[in-house]
Amino acid sequence: MQRREFLKAAAVSAASYSRIFGATERITIGLIGAGRRGIYNWDRFLQQPDVAPGAVCDIYPPHLDAGLTKAGGQAKGYKDFRKLLEQKDLDAVIVATPDHWHALPTIEACQAGKDVYVEKPLALTVREGQIMVKAARKYNRVVQVGSQQRSAAHYARAVEITSALQTLQSTALLLSLQVVLGLFRWSDDELWRPRPRHCALGHGCERSYFSRWFRRALRSKRWR
Fold this sequence. Notes:
Rossmann fold
């Protein structure tokens, strides 16, 4: 084989492998619950280049039709989420059902070998949540709860700023308490004597009583 033919054959093989690799890397997802929030999630997921639509489930025909339309005819429609979970080519599902219906589809999706993105709240009761976590661990599935307040970068930054402000406020409060406690803790005869009138004008006394109280509070080792 000549060098030119070899390089041409290698290029064709590489291109073919790239197409196959790209196809297998795409995640095929199904939507369970195609209401307002479900359609929003569905639209956002399908905007990702590595996501492919696979199935939509909703018992309300207009919602089901809306979800299928978003998928551009590439998804199958179901009215029973259990039938959707039987679809072998699905890698993951979005659970966007009403709040009291989050647990069962999530648990059964894990049992069916699907990863799950479930809308908030995770569960209706603590016990439901415990069973959902147990199912995710037992079947080694990835389960994410859609609480953007816990994951978005700008929310994380807001938490940092709030924590910093709380620290400053706590420090200021502590300092104020130290000063107030200092006013009442260190009393001696000289401190509580009547102040001469001319002291307020800055002469006739060594320093004002007000400044003495502050210095006593701030310099005391006991209240640091």
